[in-house]
Write a structure and sequence with these properties.
This protein has 90 residues and is mainly alpha-helical. The chain is built from four helices and no strands.
Protein backbone atom coordinates (compact mmCIF):
# COMPACT_ATOMS: atom_id res chain seq x y z
CA UNK A 1 0.00 0.00 0.00
CA UNK A 2 2.92 2.36 0.65
CA UNK A 3 3.94 2.11 -3.00
CA UNK A 4 0.42 3.18 -4.07
CA UNK A 5 0.57 6.09 -1.66
CA UNK A 6 3.98 7.17 -2.93
CA UNK A 7 2.83 6.90 -6.56
CA UNK A 8 -0.27 8.94 -5.79
CA UNK A 9 1.82 11.63 -4.09
CA UNK A 10 4.18 11.73 -7.08
CA UNK A 11 1.21 12.13 -9.43
CA UNK A 12 -0.17 14.94 -7.29
CA UNK A 13 3.18 16.76 -7.31
CA UNK A 14 3.40 16.43 -11.09
CA UNK A 15 -0.12 17.78 -11.57
CA UNK A 16 0.53 20.59 -9.12
CA UNK A 17 3.62 21.62 -11.09
CA UNK A 18 1.49 21.85 -14.24
CA UNK A 19 -1.50 23.52 -12.59
CA UNK A 20 -0.24 27.05 -12.71
CA UNK A 21 -0.56 29.50 -9.83
CA UNK A 22 -2.19 28.14 -6.67
CA UNK A 23 -3.18 30.48 -3.85
CA UNK A 24 -0.97 30.50 -0.77
CA UNK A 25 -3.62 29.13 1.62
CA UNK A 26 -4.14 25.99 -0.46
CA UNK A 27 -0.40 25.57 -0.93
CA UNK A 28 0.11 25.70 2.84
CA UNK A 29 -2.61 23.10 3.38
CA UNK A 30 -0.92 20.86 0.80
CA UNK A 31 2.47 21.35 2.48
CA UNK A 32 1.01 20.32 5.84
CA UNK A 33 -0.67 17.28 4.32
CA UNK A 34 2.52 16.31 2.48
CA UNK A 35 4.57 16.62 5.68
CA UNK A 36 2.10 14.53 7.67
CA UNK A 37 2.05 11.81 5.00
CA UNK A 38 5.85 11.86 4.86
CA UNK A 39 5.99 11.39 8.63
CA UNK A 40 3.54 8.55 8.37
CA UNK A 41 5.60 6.79 5.71
CA UNK A 42 8.78 7.19 7.76
CA UNK A 43 7.48 5.67 10.95
CA UNK A 44 4.94 3.18 9.62
CA UNK A 45 1.21 3.27 10.27
CA UNK A 46 1.23 0.76 13.14
CA UNK A 47 3.76 2.65 15.21
CA UNK A 48 2.19 4.92 17.80
CA UNK A 49 3.20 8.51 17.54
CA UNK A 50 2.00 12.00 16.89
CA UNK A 51 -1.66 12.60 16.23
CA UNK A 52 -0.95 14.85 13.26
CA UNK A 53 -1.67 11.97 10.90
CA UNK A 54 -5.11 11.35 12.36
CA UNK A 55 -7.80 12.00 9.78
CA UNK A 56 -5.48 12.35 6.79
CA UNK A 57 -8.05 10.77 4.49
CA UNK A 58 -10.70 13.25 5.59
CA UNK A 59 -8.32 16.21 5.30
CA UNK A 60 -7.35 15.05 1.81
CA UNK A 61 -11.00 14.85 0.77
CA UNK A 62 -11.61 18.37 2.12
CA UNK A 63 -8.65 19.67 0.11
CA UNK A 64 -9.98 17.86 -2.93
CA UNK A 65 -13.26 19.75 -2.63
CA UNK A 66 -11.44 23.09 -2.30
CA UNK A 67 -9.25 22.40 -5.32
CA UNK A 68 -12.18 21.20 -7.43
CA UNK A 69 -13.40 24.77 -7.82
CA UNK A 70 -10.19 26.59 -8.79
CA UNK A 71 -8.00 23.73 -9.99
CA UNK A 72 -10.19 20.89 -11.27
CA UNK A 73 -7.17 19.13 -12.80
CA UNK A 74 -5.80 18.50 -9.27
CA UNK A 75 -9.01 17.19 -7.77
CA UNK A 76 -8.75 13.61 -9.15
CA UNK A 77 -5.23 13.17 -7.74
CA UNK A 78 -6.32 14.42 -4.32
CA UNK A 79 -9.40 12.21 -4.38
CA UNK A 80 -7.24 9.18 -5.23
CA UNK A 81 -4.84 10.03 -2.42
CA UNK A 82 -7.76 10.31 0.01
CA UNK A 83 -9.09 6.93 -1.09
CA UNK A 84 -5.70 5.28 -0.58
CA UNK A 85 -5.36 6.81 2.90
CA UNK A 86 -8.90 5.76 3.78
CA UNK A 87 -8.23 2.20 2.62
CA UNK A 88 -5.15 2.18 4.85
CA UNK A 89 -7.37 3.16 7.79
CA UNK A 90 -5.73 6.54 8.26
Amino acid sequence: MDSNLKASLKSLHERLAQAGPVDEELLELLRQLNGDIGSLLERGKDEPGETTTYGLAERTQELSAKFAVKHPQLEPALRELGTILSNMGI
